[in-house]
Please model this.
Amino acid sequence: MTARDQKLLMVGNGFFAGLASLGVPAFSDAMMNFESNFGKAWHDWPPHGDRPGQFPDISSTGRRPRDILFRMSKSISPYREFRISLTGAPNNLTTQDFLDIYADAAQPADWVALAKAYVDEAGRWGAPR
Model:
């Protein structure tokens, strides 16, 4: 796996663990909606702007948000079945511990904030405010 793919996988792990932390049971957004909603949340997410070398270039000129979904579905991540379920203990870890290990480029609270921004953009699931 290339370094670029590893970064996409790390973002996917962080994002989906963040959604799981919010109580989102499964991911069901259509591709075009995901691209738009994730792109807005990503653009405004502080860790991405503060440490660009640690994260993939997800933009119209770099990787597209759909590349995250593709990389996740082809991985051995516990969240690869994101369209079926985001519940359960990933790798027998708490979500917090999972984020500390598998998405360490940002703090767990940052990943939850990215997921919350996405949920706010998507306007569903009744995530806690």
